[in-house]
Amino acid sequence: MTFDVVGTLIDFESGIKGCLSEIATEAGTAIDGEQALALYRAARYDEATDLFPDDLVRVYGVIAPKLGLPQDRHLAERFRDSARTWKAFPDSGAALARLARRYKLIAMTNARRWALDHFEKELGAPFYATFTPDETGTEKPDPAFFEAVFAYVAVDGGSKAQILHVAQSQYHDIGISRKLGLTNCWIERRHGQKGYGGTIEPAEFTKPDYHFISLADLADAVEAEARSAMP
Length: 231
Hints:
The protein is α/β, with parallel strands linked by helices and 231 residues long. The chain contains ten helices and six strands. The chain has a six-stranded parallel sheet, sandwiched between helices. Helix 2 crosses helix 3 (56-67), helix 3 crosses helix 4 (73-81) and helix 5 (92-99) packs parallel to helix 10.
Protein backbone atom coordinates (compact mmCIF):
# COMPACT_ATOMS: atom_id res chain seq x y z
CA MET A 1 0.00 0.00 0.00
CA THR A 2 1.24 3.47 -0.88
CA PHE A 3 0.04 6.41 1.20
CA ASP A 4 -0.27 10.12 0.89
CA VAL A 5 0.69 11.55 4.29
CA VAL A 6 -0.32 15.19 4.76
CA GLY A 7 -4.10 15.36 4.79
CA THR A 8 -4.57 11.59 4.74
CA LEU A 9 -2.62 10.55 7.83
CA ILE A 10 -1.60 13.91 9.33
CA ASP A 11 -4.31 16.49 10.06
CA PHE A 12 -2.61 19.47 8.45
CA GLU A 13 -5.79 21.55 8.31
CA SER A 14 -6.11 21.51 12.09
CA GLY A 15 -2.39 22.24 12.35
CA ILE A 16 -2.66 25.28 10.08
CA LYS A 17 -5.79 26.63 11.75
CA GLY A 18 -4.36 26.00 15.21
CA CYS A 19 -1.12 27.89 14.58
CA LEU A 20 -2.86 30.84 12.92
CA SER A 21 -5.44 30.98 15.72
CA GLU A 22 -2.67 31.13 18.32
CA ILE A 23 -1.00 34.00 16.49
CA ALA A 24 -4.36 35.76 16.18
CA THR A 25 -5.09 35.41 19.90
CA GLU A 26 -1.67 36.85 20.76
CA ALA A 27 -2.41 39.76 18.44
CA GLY A 28 -5.77 40.37 20.12
CA THR A 29 -7.93 39.22 17.24
CA ALA A 30 -9.57 36.06 15.89
CA ILE A 31 -9.73 34.25 12.57
CA ASP A 32 -12.28 32.11 10.75
CA GLY A 33 -10.71 28.68 10.24
CA GLU A 34 -12.34 27.89 6.90
CA GLN A 35 -11.50 31.33 5.54
CA ALA A 36 -7.91 30.77 6.59
CA LEU A 37 -7.82 27.44 4.74
CA ALA A 38 -9.27 29.02 1.60
CA LEU A 39 -6.65 31.78 1.68
CA TYR A 40 -3.93 29.23 2.36
CA ARG A 41 -5.07 27.09 -0.58
CA ALA A 42 -5.03 30.05 -2.97
CA ALA A 43 -1.59 31.18 -1.80
CA ARG A 44 -0.09 27.70 -1.69
CA TYR A 45 -0.84 27.00 -5.32
CA ASP A 46 0.50 30.28 -6.64
CA GLU A 47 3.15 30.10 -9.37
CA ALA A 48 5.73 31.29 -6.84
CA THR A 49 5.24 28.24 -4.62
CA ASP A 50 8.19 26.51 -2.97
CA LEU A 51 8.53 23.01 -1.53
CA PHE A 52 6.25 22.15 1.39
CA PRO A 53 6.28 23.02 4.26
CA ASP A 54 9.13 25.50 3.66
CA ASP A 55 6.65 27.42 1.51
CA LEU A 56 4.60 28.28 4.60
CA VAL A 57 6.97 31.19 5.25
CA ARG A 58 5.96 32.77 1.95
CA VAL A 59 2.32 31.78 2.40
CA TYR A 60 2.13 33.50 5.78
CA GLY A 61 3.30 36.73 4.20
CA VAL A 62 0.50 36.47 1.64
CA ILE A 63 -2.38 35.57 3.95
CA ALA A 64 -1.48 37.42 7.17
CA PRO A 65 -2.77 40.86 6.08
CA LYS A 66 -5.97 39.31 4.77
CA LEU A 67 -6.56 37.70 8.17
CA GLY A 68 -5.60 40.80 10.13
CA LEU A 69 -2.43 39.16 11.47
CA PRO A 70 0.90 40.93 11.98
CA GLN A 71 3.48 40.76 9.22
CA ASP A 72 6.60 39.39 10.87
CA ARG A 73 9.35 37.07 9.63
CA HIS A 74 9.52 35.34 13.00
CA LEU A 75 5.79 34.54 12.86
CA ALA A 76 6.12 33.29 9.29
CA GLU A 77 8.88 30.91 10.37
CA ARG A 78 6.78 29.85 13.34
CA PHE A 79 3.99 28.98 10.91
CA ARG A 80 6.38 26.80 8.91
CA ASP A 81 7.86 25.16 11.98
CA SER A 82 4.41 24.31 13.35
CA ALA A 83 4.54 21.32 10.98
CA ARG A 84 6.86 19.68 13.50
CA THR A 85 3.96 19.37 15.94
CA TRP A 86 1.03 18.62 13.64
CA LYS A 87 -0.97 15.69 14.91
CA ALA A 88 -2.12 12.55 13.18
CA PHE A 89 -5.81 11.92 12.70
CA PRO A 90 -6.99 9.93 15.74
CA ASP A 91 -7.31 6.69 13.76
CA SER A 92 -4.11 6.92 11.69
CA GLY A 93 -1.54 5.25 13.94
CA ALA A 94 -3.60 2.26 14.98
CA ALA A 95 -4.97 1.69 11.46
CA LEU A 96 -1.50 1.80 9.92
CA ALA A 97 -0.25 -0.70 12.50
CA ARG A 98 -3.09 -3.06 11.57
CA LEU A 99 -2.45 -2.69 7.83
CA ALA A 100 1.29 -3.22 8.29
CA ARG A 101 0.60 -6.75 9.53
CA ARG A 102 -0.46 -7.71 5.99
CA TYR A 103 1.14 -5.19 3.65
CA LYS A 104 4.33 -3.25 3.05
CA LEU A 105 3.44 0.40 3.60
CA ILE A 106 5.15 3.09 1.52
CA ALA A 107 4.83 6.82 2.20
CA MET A 108 4.54 9.17 -0.78
CA THR A 109 4.45 12.77 0.40
CA ASN A 110 4.97 16.23 -1.02
CA ALA A 111 6.38 17.24 2.37
CA ARG A 112 10.14 17.56 2.54
CA ARG A 113 12.21 14.97 4.38
CA TRP A 114 12.68 17.09 7.51
CA ALA A 115 8.92 17.29 7.96
CA LEU A 116 8.30 13.63 7.17
CA ASP A 117 10.77 12.69 9.91
CA HIS A 118 8.42 14.31 12.44
CA PHE A 119 5.29 12.87 10.82
CA GLU A 120 6.75 9.36 10.95
CA LYS A 121 7.37 9.64 14.67
CA GLU A 122 3.83 10.89 15.19
CA LEU A 123 2.49 7.90 13.23
CA GLY A 124 4.62 5.28 15.00
CA ALA A 125 7.14 4.69 12.17
CA PRO A 126 4.95 2.23 10.20
CA PHE A 127 6.56 2.59 6.77
CA TYR A 128 8.62 0.08 4.84
CA ALA A 129 9.89 2.84 2.56
CA THR A 130 9.35 6.59 2.18
CA PHE A 131 9.51 9.04 -0.73
CA THR A 132 9.62 12.85 -0.60
CA PRO A 133 10.47 15.57 -3.14
CA ASP A 134 14.00 15.50 -1.76
CA GLU A 135 14.43 12.05 -3.34
CA THR A 136 12.15 12.27 -6.38
CA GLY A 137 12.97 15.84 -7.42
CA THR A 138 9.30 16.53 -8.02
CA GLU A 139 5.87 16.62 -6.36
CA LYS A 140 2.59 14.83 -6.89
CA PRO A 141 0.60 14.89 -9.14
CA ASP A 142 3.67 14.72 -11.40
CA PRO A 143 3.71 11.16 -12.79
CA ALA A 144 7.49 11.13 -12.27
CA PHE A 145 6.95 10.96 -8.51
CA PHE A 146 4.86 7.82 -8.94
CA GLU A 147 7.32 6.35 -11.44
CA ALA A 148 10.10 6.61 -8.83
CA VAL A 149 7.97 4.52 -6.47
CA PHE A 150 7.11 2.01 -9.22
CA ALA A 151 10.82 1.53 -9.90
CA TYR A 152 11.50 0.90 -6.21
CA VAL A 153 8.65 -1.62 -5.96
CA ALA A 154 9.93 -3.44 -9.05
CA VAL A 155 13.44 -3.76 -7.60
CA ASP A 156 11.85 -5.01 -4.39
CA GLY A 157 10.16 -7.80 -6.34
CA GLY A 158 6.69 -6.31 -6.70
CA SER A 159 4.72 -4.65 -9.47
CA LYS A 160 2.50 -1.63 -10.04
CA ALA A 161 -0.48 -3.96 -10.33
CA GLN A 162 -0.03 -4.99 -6.69
CA ILE A 163 -0.22 -1.44 -5.33
CA LEU A 164 -3.24 0.09 -3.59
CA HIS A 165 -2.72 3.85 -3.43
CA VAL A 166 -4.45 5.44 -0.42
CA ALA A 167 -5.03 9.20 -0.25
CA GLN A 168 -7.46 12.01 0.52
CA SER A 169 -6.48 14.45 -2.24
CA GLN A 170 -8.39 14.09 -5.46
CA TYR A 171 -6.01 16.58 -7.10
CA HIS A 172 -2.64 15.22 -5.95
CA ASP A 173 -3.38 11.50 -5.80
CA ILE A 174 -6.69 9.99 -6.82
CA GLY A 175 -6.94 11.48 -10.30
CA ILE A 176 -3.34 10.82 -11.33
CA SER A 177 -3.25 7.34 -9.78
CA ARG A 178 -6.25 6.45 -11.95
CA LYS A 179 -4.49 7.76 -15.07
CA LEU A 180 -1.41 5.69 -14.20
CA GLY A 181 -3.47 2.52 -13.85
CA LEU A 182 -3.25 2.10 -10.08
CA THR A 183 -5.97 0.70 -7.88
CA ASN A 184 -6.81 3.52 -5.48
CA CYS A 185 -8.65 4.23 -2.25
CA TRP A 186 -10.05 7.66 -1.39
CA ILE A 187 -10.07 8.50 2.32
CA GLU A 188 -12.60 11.33 2.48
CA ARG A 189 -11.25 13.16 5.51
CA ARG A 190 -13.55 16.15 4.96
CA HIS A 191 -16.67 13.97 4.93
CA GLY A 192 -19.60 16.09 6.04
CA GLN A 193 -17.77 19.36 5.37
CA LYS A 194 -18.18 21.63 2.37
CA GLY A 195 -15.45 22.24 -0.16
CA TYR A 196 -11.87 21.07 -0.36
CA GLY A 197 -10.48 22.96 2.62
CA GLY A 198 -6.73 23.41 2.31
CA THR A 199 -6.38 21.11 -0.70
CA ILE A 200 -6.62 22.35 -4.27
CA GLU A 201 -9.86 21.46 -6.05
CA PRO A 202 -9.44 18.99 -8.94
CA ALA A 203 -10.53 19.88 -12.44
CA GLU A 204 -12.84 16.88 -12.24
CA PHE A 205 -13.82 14.36 -9.59
CA THR A 206 -12.39 10.85 -10.00
CA LYS A 207 -14.46 7.97 -8.70
CA PRO A 208 -12.09 5.79 -6.67
CA ASP A 209 -11.96 2.00 -6.58
CA TYR A 210 -12.53 2.14 -2.82
CA HIS A 211 -13.98 4.93 -0.71
CA PHE A 212 -13.92 5.28 3.07
CA ILE A 213 -14.31 8.22 5.42
CA SER A 214 -11.55 7.06 7.76
CA LEU A 215 -8.41 4.96 7.66
CA ALA A 216 -9.90 2.77 10.37
CA ASP A 217 -12.69 1.85 7.94
CA LEU A 218 -10.10 0.72 5.41
CA ALA A 219 -8.32 -1.40 8.03
CA ASP A 220 -11.67 -2.92 9.04
CA ALA A 221 -12.44 -3.79 5.41
CA VAL A 222 -9.02 -5.41 4.93
CA GLU A 223 -9.43 -7.54 8.04
CA ALA A 224 -12.99 -8.51 7.09
CA GLU A 225 -11.77 -9.60 3.66
CA ALA A 226 -8.98 -11.63 5.24
CA ARG A 227 -11.45 -13.41 7.53
CA SER A 228 -13.79 -14.20 4.65
CA ALA A 229 -10.91 -15.77 2.73
CA MET A 230 -10.05 -18.14 5.58
CA PRO A 231 -11.10 -21.77 5.05
